[in-house]
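hey so i finally got around to running the thing on that chain from the lab meeting. sorry it took forever, my laptop kept dying and i had to restart like 3 times. anyway pasting the input first so we r on the same page abt which one it is
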Amino acid sequence: MSKIITPYEQADTGKKQQVATMFNNISKKYDFLNHFLSFGIDKIWRKKAISMLKELKPQNILDVATGTGDFAFEAIRILNPQKITGVDISEGMLSIAQSKINDRGLSGRFEVQVGDSERLNFPDEVFDAVTVAFGVRNFENLEQGLRDICRVIRPGGQAVILEFSNPRKFPVKQFYSFYSKNLLPRIGKLFSKDSRAYRYLPESIAQFPDGSNFTNLLLEAGFKQAVCKPQTFGICTIYIGTK
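ok and heres what got predicted. didnt touch it at all, straight out
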């Protein structure tokens, strides 16, 4: 990627720190805005992505950039693994995830911890699967992050990555561009008081190497196979990498 898109215009602060600040700022409204701004379709995307792991039947899962934990909770519901570990750079997001874990009585099965998604603090080949929902787009060094994800997966295991992409067909492309650049930041500012966070979203999507460009990065990172499955007219894509 030629240009690193950051949430805020702070030359003295790296993308990683800015992303952590951004999610801390919007953490209390994150779940509501996610569902509201996607018209609830994000729940369908998560369900479909997690279902891709049914055949693998993973028992030990790492959820990278876990945020408030929705992807991991979906994995628990659909896959019934023994253990899920969630890692995120934002303490604000993890605080909400932990509250959900406590409320649902899942502290024995779902553990969250602050961590760098690009330098995972785990041994090699320890997880059956790694999941990431709307997180890789925020990596400061995407290639490094993908290599580290591959490193912690056992041979034969899989990574399932859910990420926004750029629709290419008329009229979805034109509608999505207008919505994301004009309406989304205004709605985000109204509810979260951080309009820049929701201007960063379409900017980061626009520069993200989606589709075959991303599957190529997965192969370069060490995965033996990589496929992509576009969802909802290409607004979102599910990527599956097999080690």
